[in-house]
Task: inverse folding
């Protein structure tokens, strides 16, 4: 399971956030999530993982 925090996409718009809102700069970028998906998929079959939580370095967990 891959659980990203707020990601700067069109899904983050609303509830007071608009395109170009400064707070979106702290959110994950879509490429961050894409990279994580790729890393998980490249794990050898002998490796089992459960939950990958992603937070931007500027986001509060």
Result:
């Amino acid at each position: 399971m891959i659980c990203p925090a707020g990601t700067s996409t069109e899904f983050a718009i609303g509830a007071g956030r608009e395109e170009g809102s400064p707070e979106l700069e702290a959110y994950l970028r879509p490429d961050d999530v894409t990279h994580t998906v790729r890393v998980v998929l490249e794990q050898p079959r002998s490796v089992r993982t459960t939950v990958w939580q992603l937070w931007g370095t500027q986001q509060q967990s």
About this structure: Helices lie at 30-41. The beta strands are 2-4, 52-54. The radius of gyration is 14 Å. The first helix runs from residue 30 to 41.
